[in-house]
Design a protein that fits this description.
152 residues; alpha+beta; two-stranded antiparallel sheet; 9 strands; disordered N terminus
Amino acid sequence: MTQEESNIDVNKAVENPVLVAAMERVAREGSDEAKDELLKQLLQANYLAAMFAENLKISSNEENQKTIEQGSTFGVLSAENDGKNYLVLFTDWQALGAYTDQQVSGWILPGQQAWSFALQGDTYDGVVINPAHNALPLERPTLEYLLHLASQ
């Protein structure tokens, strides 16, 4: 993925209807073809992580672009299951809203950045996409594979 392909338009809502459809298809039929399409969509999607932003230091420039300043701290929503901690990612705002009613901000992450973030250190055992409906858990080895594919 080139830098140009990873640019995110923050003025456009994060939506991934093709990814959601691919997730549902794998859950429904589980065919190799469905899994291949899911893999393709996982690599192309942008995700939302739920961020608790109470300790952010934010500055704005003339174009009203906001920058998180060094020294800021924030929390990221995660979920625990069977003693494992997962970074929670969402395909869109509707999926995020179905999971939590807490006051959160959305942190938009391209797949490659999401996988890298989840693999840093040993905080997360993986990620789970859309945990409130048709959850898709991805363990660390899968994230490593996705990161490898995304960097080619």
